[in-house]
Amino acid sequence: MGSRRRVESSNYRNPCLTMHQPWASLLVYGIKRVEGRSWPAPVRGRLWIHAASKIPEPETIRAMEDFYRELYAMNGITDIKFPEHYPVSRLLGCVNVVGCVTCEELVNWEELPASVRLEGQTAFCWLCEQPQKLIIPFEMRGYQGVYNLERKIYESAVRGLSSVKPPLPIKFPHPDPKDPFSLRPGSLASRPNGSRISEEEKSPSLVAAIAGARAAATQFAKNNMSPPTTGGDIESDEKPVSSRTRKNQGEGVQ
């Protein structure tokens, strides 16, 4: 089981985020580079990714794979190795959260490939690099929000990580390379706004894929009584955490 302790950002040790499938595996495989949330990222560095218990519908998987297939086609990449399976109730691997910006900042960030900017579909965009997956995913229960892995799970998981080769590795530039938290909401607001990708620049198939991905996230949220995000936010089917335990310090290790 994962730790029941959801804590303040200064107390995170081996933080973990539970996500619905297929979004969870797409992130761990490095296909998904931006995790969309309605709240800003409270952590930097390694973030463990756990898949929630709900089995994804084939239509949802198809919509999200089509979405990323079209995004990568913008960069001339047509051979994407999607996950063969989308396991549930499993710890899948980890990513490195290097920053968090608003959707407005991401879509106008001209230094990034257009395909990355188009991943900005929610209020806050968690920027993820260096994905790693577990050779054998661990069965465990997830929790709402960001929480700490139990020590024994962490110690086993960290030994079972395998490098991932993303279709298009991305490096998000920091405003201040010496400050790991310099890439935060509002940090790019002082820059001149770049040009958004207009509808005319998008192919009909890309427009359809974006609409399909949005519809899949919205329908998923309706079925689970949760606000739509691009990451399958956990609101209903994973164990909640009380306000008392939120105040406790986590029990994992660095």
Write the layout of secondary structure elements.
Layout: E1 15-19, H1 23-28, E2 34-37, E3 45-51, H2 58-73, E4 90-102, H3 103-107, H4 114-117, E5 124-139, E6 146-148, H5 151-157, E7 161-163, H6 204-224, H7 243-246
Parallel strand pairs: 1-3
Antiparallel strand pairs: 1-6, 2-5, 3-4, 4-5, 5-7
Helix pairs in contact: 2-6
Domain ASCH: 17-123
Region (Disordered): 168-203, 218-254
Protein name: Activating signal cointegrator 1
Describe the model.
Helices cover 25% and strands 20% of the residues. It has seven helices and seven strands, in the order βαββαβααββαβαα. α2 (58-73) runs antiparallel to α6. It is globular, with a radius of gyration of 17 Å. Strands 1, 2, 3, 4, 5, 6 and 7 form a seven-stranded mixed β-sheet that branches. The protein has one domain (9-236): Archaeosine Trna-guanine Transglycosylase, Chain: A, domain 4. It has 254 residues and is an alpha+beta fold. This is Activating signal cointegrator 1. Residues 168-203, 218-254 are annotated as: Disordered. Residues 17-123 form the ASCH domain.
Tell me the structural class. alpha+beta
Q: Radius of gyration in whole Å, from Cα?
A: 17 Å
Q: Report the CATH superfamily.
A: Hypothetical protein
Number of strands: 7
- Major β-sheet, in short? 7 strands, mixed
Distance between the termini: 19 Å
